[in-house]
Amino acid sequence: MMLTTSNKAIDKQQLADLYHFYKDKNEEKYLTQILDYYAKLKQDMIHICFSGHFSAGKSTLINHLMKENLLPQSPIPTSANIVEIKQGIEQVLVHFNHQEAIKMKTLPPLEQLHQLCRDGDQVKKIEIYKNMEDLPAGVTLMDTPGIDAVNDADRLITESALHQVDVLFYVMDYNHVQSEVNATFLKEIDSMHKPYYVIINQMDKHDESEISFTAFQESLETVFRQWNIQPKRVFYTSMLMSRMELMNLLLFKRV
């Protein structure tokens, strides 16, 4: 079970009542979620989450959109914790699993920052604040660990942050669109009634001589029908696309 709410459905007093209810029951998990949601309401923050299959290119996509290499990117799985990117005075907050959080007043060298993003054993969440022209104030971009069939811990880390999410982009690698792991996760998102979009990334792998694009689309739609998965829209992307093409596609053509 996960606490799921929306800005319009609950106010601060209701959150306070929920907090005391779960505190009496010693439900630490829900207490953390309620405090997260209280901070979200107080800051009037919108959370846009990028999740998806491991090595599908989530981190690379965010870096490309923001014109910043803030997130590690590699053919092998990279981000191992929740990373939040926010507009603001440059600083980094590192939240650990078993010790107090620390605050860095400036961004550390990128290699050090990337290492923190890879350290899922010690680091629970990283908040990166930076003045970026394309990230509006009041918007948080979230990068989550890649989801696969082997590492259940990464999936649990991702699920632990979903209560804050307003809109989710789920990124799939072109070669894994029929993965049961993807379908299972999207089915869960459907059950939470959160708006989400599917991004089929790395479309440069597509070979029209092997399968037509129309046939590829139809095979994906068949999987979605079988699982009763209903994203608001499906996008087809490649890092060979220009940044402006991606911005126009994902941010301005979502309806």
Automatic annotation (TrEMBL):
Its main location: membrane. GO terms for molecular function: GTP binding; GTPase activity. Coiled coil: none annotated. Keywords: GTP-binding, Hydrolase, Membrane, Nucleotide-binding. It comes from the Bacteria. It is found in: Membrane. Transmembrane segments: none annotated. GO terms for cellular component: membrane. Signal peptide: none annotated. Residues 48-202 form the Dynamin N-terminal domain. PANTHER family: SARCALUMENIN (PTHR10465:SF0), TRANSMEMBRANE GTPASE FZO1 (PTHR10465). This is Uncharacterized protein Bsub YpbR. It comes from Gracilibacillus boraciitolerans JCM 21714. The lineage of its organism: Bacteria, Bacillati, Bacillota, Bacilli, Bacillales.
